[in-house]
Amino acid sequence: MTSTSVIFAFFIVIVCIHAKQRPFYNIGHMVNSIKQVNEFLDSGCNALETDITFSSEGIALKTYHGKPCDCLRWCGYSEKIEVYLEYTRNLTTPANKMYRSQYAILLLDLKTNLISKQNLNKAGKLFVDLLYKHLFTFGKSESKLKVVIGVQRIIHNDFVVGFYEEMKKRGIEDISNQIGWQVAENVHIQKIAEMWRRIDVVKNIWLSDGITNCLSSLRSWSRTITMIKMRDECNVQSNSFCARKVYAWTFDAKRYLRNSLRLNVDGIITNLPKNLQEVLREDEFKLKYRLANSDDNPWTIFA
């Protein structure tokens, strides 16, 4: 066999291994300041979760979690939301000198419970304006980032409706290809599915299950297992509302990170991404998972 043949055969083996590895998201938890963004990316994250607070009138105020929050974490970091989004855009734009190639997903945990019910629709419209200006640069952005927007409860569906009404009004529905959605509330999964069917226009759906790291060791895995079964058995051709990805939160100890990975989750929210990186390199997982990148499609079900 010639050296060229050996190289080609080796390349084919690598491609086959890569195709069988689940694209995985190491999601940094509660990343609410510019300083934290770089710290978590440097620790191995390819996705970040950020909290956004609102006024009762529906205006996005800042990135901020506040008390209570996870054990052994400082709850008070914050940033102007416009500054945070613009910094994120720079980090995810290949032509920018700040480009971080591994940064693929931003999860926005919207504190929609702070918005009065009558202002949820308006809040969704205003949020389109915020993202369009500061993340998508009026459609001119070359950022490779995908965004997963999370509302807190299924009764906050008017926020999502307002968001899509505003995109349609502006003629910018194409940015929906960069946006996915989830509901943070730990309600029955069928109720979440019914919400998306009622709204009708949302297809890039993620599911998540979990609890604060202070209590995660006590939580049953049953809901996560049900979500994964639904994901794997769903046929996108006949049901466009299939959940594309399922992630677990919030786990820091390696024991529980391993347990999550054994369930075939697509991602884990963690306060200690270095722990997760080390677990992913273990023999049990290193051929099963690979870190997703910005070229992976987060709106597809891995098969």
From TrEMBL:
Which GO terms fall under molecular function for this chain's record? lyase activity; metal ion binding; phosphoric diester hydrolase activity
Q: Which InterPro entries match?
A: PLC-like_Pdiesterase_TIM-brl
GO biological process, alphabetically ordered? lipid metabolic process
Q: Does the keyword Transport apply?
A: no
Kindly state which keywords UniProt assigns to this record, in alphabetical order: Disulfide bond, Lyase, Magnesium, Metal-binding, Signal
Catalysed reactions, as listed in the record: an N-(acyl)-sphingosylphosphoethanolamine = an N-(acyl)-sphingosyl-1,3-cyclic phosphate + ethanolamine
This one is known as Sphingomyelinase D-like protein
Q: Kindly indicate where the leader peptide sits in this chain.
A: 1-19
